[in-house]
Design brief:
Structural class: alpha/beta
Shape: globular
Number of helices: 13
Helix content: 40-55%
Strand order of the largest sheet: 8-7-6-9-11-10
Number of strands: 11
Largest sheet: 6 strands, mixed
Order of helices and strands: EEEHHEHHEHEEEHHEHHEHHHEH
Strand content: 15-25%
Length: 307
């Protein structure tokens, strides 16, 4: 069977999926990894990658390169996608050179529209929403994608907004727990961008959340003793619970959040910001639940490689 390797490098995390084609269509996972490297550290303020952020990222890519080589994936079947932080960084050539040296491929800095299409395809590859239109949301570190489409994986529209868990935390939520005024200012900023997004949130029939903020929030909601991808996938969180989870996280220090059994330690300082974004979207929706999907842009990249 054909093997492929998909890498998604965002503002906060870098993720790997090595997969092969399933008879009749779809994917069989061989290896799936997520590492928090905070590549976007300070990019919003300084306009370029911090040397420490590049060092952390390259160390993880060295590990990923070993896994990819061990699985026998050829370079032409590797797609390295870079998103929000890389679009904003002035010294991205240094980043490109480091990735080429380690993987033999050049990062593909995709547009927000392409990122949205891949996320939507990936999300619906293993989730079947009951009502349409379907809203898929991907809260990243530097940006958030809003994709509207149908259950048949047809995307109708997409928009990428410059609100993400890292960006929001660095701008507004600099202490923990955050002060109520800071939370209000962050919420106001998110609301302003959502109001101008052109998305008819009230008409959505289903809501699917993908990637780290949504999946980590599901782990907290389920009170998992440790993170369990199989249990998280397909979890439904009532909208009222999204707001209660924000209230809970906003009342904790980073150390207390990090101590939650299912929490990735390197996501603890930005999960409140990411949850705030989800809560402001939830306030505009009339669907009963947020559906959590562990299939996302990685699955979309891998499926595109196989096709």
């Amino acid at each position: 069977m054909t093997k492929v390797a998909a890498i998604d490098c965002g503002t906060n995390s870098i993720r790997l999926l090595i997969a092969e084609s399933k008879p009749g269509g779809g994917l069989i996972d061989i290896e799936r990894r997520t590492e928090i490297v905070r590549l976007g550290q300070g990019v919003d303020a300084a306009g370029e990658f911090h040397p420490d952020a590049l060092k952390r990222t390259f160390a993880v890519v060295d590990t990923y390169a070993s896994l990819i080589n061990g699985a026998g994936v050829p370079p032409e079947r590797i797609h390295f996608v870079a998103t929000s932080a890389t679009r904003d960084a002035g010294n991205r050539d240094e980043f490109f050179d480091g990735i080429r040296q380690r993987l033999g491929v050049t990062p593909d800095v995709i547009s927000g529209d392409t990122e949205a299409r891949l996320s939507f395809t990936g999300a619906l590859s293993r989730v079947e929403p009951e009502a349409e239109p379907v809203l898929v949301i991907d809260v990243g570190g530097g940006s958030t994608e809003f994709i509207v489409g149908s259950a048949a994986s047809r995307m109708h529209s997409a928009i990428s907004l410059d609100i993400g868990s890292v960006r929001l935390t660095e701008r507004f939520l600099k202490v923990s727990p955050p002060a109520p005024d800071d939370l209000d200012r962050a919420a106001g900023y998110v609301d302003q961008l959502l109001d101008g997004a052109g998305v008819d949130f009230g008409s959505m029939g289903s809501w699917i959340g993908v990637a780290g903020t949504a999946t980590q929030l599901a782990g907290v909601y389920l009170e998992l003793a440790e993170y369990d991808r199989d249990r998280v996938h397909g979890t439904t969180i009532p909208l009222a619970e999204v707001h209660r989870l924000l209230d809970r996280l906003a009342g904790l220090t980073v150390e207390q959040i990090r101590a939650l059994p299912s929490m990735h330690p390197n996501r603890a300082d930005v999960i409140t910001g990411g949850t705030l974004i989800l809560a402001r979207v939830a306030a505009r929706l009339h669907v009963p639940d947020l559906i959590i999907s562990e299939s996302d842009i990685l699955d979309g990249i891998a499926l595109a490689l196989l096709s």
